[in-house]
UniProtKB/TrEMBL annotation:
The lineage of its organism: Bacteria, Pseudomonadati, Chlamydiota, Chlamydiia, Parachlamydiales. PANTHER family: CORA FAMILY METAL ION TRANSPORTER (EUROFUNG). It comes from the Bacteria. Gene3D superfamilies: CorA soluble domain-like, Magnesium transport protein CorA, transmembrane region. Keywords: Cell membrane, Ion transport, Magnesium, Membrane, Transmembrane, Transmembrane helix, Transport. It holds the Pfam family CorA. GO terms for molecular function: cobalt ion binding; cobalt ion transmembrane transporter activity; magnesium ion binding; magnesium ion transmembrane transporter activity. Its main location: membrane. SUPFAM superfamilies: CorA soluble domain-like, Magnesium transport protein CorA, transmembrane region. GO terms for cellular component: plasma membrane. Mediates influx of magnesium ions. The chain crosses the membrane at residues 319-339, 351-371. The gene is corA. Belongs to the CorA metal ion transporter (MIT) (TC 1.A.35) family. This is Magnesium transport protein CorA.
């Protein structure tokens, strides 16, 4: 029976292998191209989406707000001469020449440029003199494919400037932009550190949305597991296990990122922003606690599934054993009367056949009654 279970698990694992290989492919893609190169070499790593790099800019203060789409690097540089806060968004990070040009114009460290192109980065925070560099993972749940999709978000900020880099051309910070357009005093009067906090807070809030979807899926999977498990149920459990691993890889390091962020001293991060960062830190702790709970639930589901396989196999074996046990004495009786001896008196008795059949039926019923008395069936 253990061999049956192992074979069943192996078969499902082979079908599930494609998704695991896809995750590893994203982490390792093009890394061999960087072997032997010096630190700061601009080699794009990851899946290149079919679009070019685009830039947008937002300049704001308490009384002013300027927003421009599809601008050039020169236009962005012109806005840096004002005392207002400037937010530059870069959509698309797979063109080394463009990233190098942006890095040169805005005096970005070579290692920052390298990490921007490496879209499989683990969330982290680095400090380069008067600049803070943050890497985070933006997660969303694809309802059509029932999969978690992640995107790297890179943030660089100083005093009055913040530059954000997104892999795709879809803006994930529309809620923050809307607050700026509406003249939110709290965000409009603060510097780049508070804007960086607002963007991280948006990213963390989306974690809760993804976790809610995963929780709903786990509830449905648990109901299916208890009510009527199917051959594809194990694959669903394995996929949920892999999704939780992706969640942990993306969310767990954010705890250290936010912790380091709130420990940066002025003037890069002021005390007002540090208070709000504590709230983001608490949300990260909640996310990690939820993920640990998901891991326990999935582990329990796997145990339940294996128990169901054992129970089902035992039921089958029990039925086969009962049938075999009942037919053993019946086979014995029929084999006796199958012998060709002339001196057997029952062979010439007119009611011999119906009596033997009645005896065999009675014996079978008595055995079934005995099994029920023993609660074997």
């Amino acid at each position: 029976m253990d061999l049956y279970i192992r074979n069943h698990l192996s078969f499902c694992s082979l079908e599930f292998l494609d998704f695991s290989e896809f995750i590893m492919y994203r982490l390792l893609k093009n890394r061999t191209k960087k072997t032997g190169l010096s630190p700061g070499s601009l080699i794009p790593i990851g899946e290149k989406p079919p679009h070019e790099i685009k830039l947008s800019i937002i300049e704001y203060s308490e009384s002013e707000f300027i927003e421009k789409e599809n601008v050039s690097i020169e236009e962005c540089l012109d806005h840096l001469t004002t005392p207002n806060m400037t937010w530059i968004q870069v959509f698309g990070v797979y063109d080394p020449a463009s990233i190098a040009s942006i890095g040169k114009r805005f005096d970005l460290h070579a290692l920052i440029q390298e990490d921007i192109l490496n879209t499989s980065q683990r969330p982290k925070l680095d400090i380069y003199q008067d600049q803070v560099f943050i890497v985070a993972r933006f997660l969303k749940y694809n309802q059509r494919d029932h999969q978690i999709q992640d995107e790297q978000v890179s943030l660089i900020f100083g005093q009055n400037l913040l530059i954000s880099f997104l892999e795709q051309d879809k803006d994930v910070f529309t809620s923050v932009k809307e607050r700026l357009r509406q003249g939110n005093i709290r965000i409009r009067k603060q510097k780049a550190d508070y804007l960086a906090y607002a963007l991280l807070d948006t990213i963390v809030d989306h974690y809760f949305i993804v976790l809610e979807k995963i929780d709903t899926n786990l509830d449905h999977l648990e109901e299916e597991l208890v009510r009527s498990p199917k051959p594809g149920t194990l694959q669903s459990i394995q996929r949920a296990k892999q999704e939780i691993a992706v969640l942990k890889r993306s969310i767990w390091p954010m705890r250290e990122v936010v912790n380091r962020f709130q420990r940066i001293e002025p003037p890069l991060v002021n005390a007002h922003t540090q208070i709000f960062l504590k709230d983001v830190y608490d949300h990260i702790i909640q996310n990690n606690d939820i993920i640990e709970g998901f891991r326990d639930v999935v582990s329990g589901m796997l145990d339940i599934y294996l128990s169901n396989i054992n129970i089902r196999s035992n039921e089958i074996m029990k039925v086969l054993t009962i049938v075999s046990t009942i037919f053993v004495p019946l086979t014995f009786i029929s084999s006796i009367y199958g012998m060709n001896f002339d001196s057997m008196p029952e062979l010439h008795y007119p009611f011999g056949y119906p009596l033997i059949m009645l005896f065999m039926l009675t014996l079978s019923l008595l055995m079934l009654h005995y099994f029920r008395q023993k609660k074997w069936i």
